[in-house]
Amino acid sequence: MFPIAFHPIYQHPLPEGHRFPMLKYELLPQQLLHEGTAIETDFFEPSKLCNEVDVLRVHTDQYLEDLKELTLDKRAARKLGFPLSAQLVERELRIAQGTIEGCLKAYDHRVAMNVAGGTHHAYTDHGEAFCLLNDQAIAARYLQHHGLAEKVLIVDLDVHQGNGTAEIFQNDDSVFTFSMHGAGNYPFKKEQSDLDIAIPDGYEDDYYLSELKNTLPDLIAQEQPDFIFYLCGVDVLESDKLGKLSMTLDGCKERDRFSLSAFAKARTKTNAIIPVQCSMGGGYSPEIKTIIEAHTNTFRVAKSSFF
């Protein structure tokens, strides 16, 4: 089995200007099935909405209450990027639950994927840039609370810095946050991750991959995590409307191949296999086929790396 979290709630209606970014959540599973990278039984629907207790290990009571009651002030609501609605909040809760359940499946299957997720701009007390609730942060705290992991490594290779994730885990040695992102891109005021590598605007495959390959294996060996989260946004592509790097599809695929192979080879201090959960993150190229191909590559190399 190749566990992949998916649910039709990802397709909830949005105003026309917000519809295009959501298409990938419909088309990606179709492509995976069409080419045989996944089969129907690989997909699972989150069994419920994320429990409030699990959310509140990361986010504040007031913020969650304002989301549920749709009482965010206008400025905070504008920062979300989406019109605030009950459907949107439900979507975020289900995505977070998909990441939690994916983590649990990763203990049996080594790796699990979420077709959505990667909401790394969500802070403890507010959301921004299409991120309301931080799915991987919520799942990391879930694992720790239930004694399933002590040391967690979050590897965030989206083109945008994981500022919310950095803020959530600041001064917390039990979760190591690594963000490799575009130097001149959003957020323009960066938070401080445990390790940040800022790639200058316009840099291409060779520079990016050299930085990654010189960093990631040593980082895993140094931190010796019990669990790894991977945020694999494809907005590093040259074609991306919201990215400022110049990576090719092949370069982005090599990023995933190298990272996932490093995760698959890694072992804990007791020589146990390290489970991995992947959330898709951003991808905003003008042509939907480019986005789907880049995301599909992540699933292809995950399958070849772990199975």
Quick structural overview:
The protein is an alpha/beta fold. Helix content is 43%, strand content 11%. The protein has a single domain, classed as Histone deacetylase domain (Arginase, Chain A, 3-Layer(aba) Sandwich), CATH 3.40.800.
What's the helix and strand layout?
Blueprint: E1 4-5, H1 16-35, E2 43-44, H2 52-55, H3 61-69, H4 74-79, H5 86-109, E3 111-114, H6 135-145, E4 152-156, H7 163-168, E5 175-182, E6 195-199, H8 205-213, H9 216-223, E7 227-231, H10 249-265, E8 276-279, H11 288-306
Question: What keywords describe this structure?
Answer:
307 residues, Ureohydrolase_dom_sf, Arginase, Chain A, HDACs, alpha/beta, 8-stranded parallel β-sheet, Deacetylase, hydrolase activity
Describe this structure in words.
The chain is of the alpha/beta class and 307 residues long. The protein contains 11 helices and 8 strands. Helix 5 packs across helix 6 and helix 10 runs parallel beside helix 11. It has a single domain, classed as Histone deacetylase domain (Arginase, Chain A, 3-Layer(aba) Sandwich). The protein is 43% helix and 11% strand. The protein has an 8-stranded parallel beta sheet, sandwiched between helices.
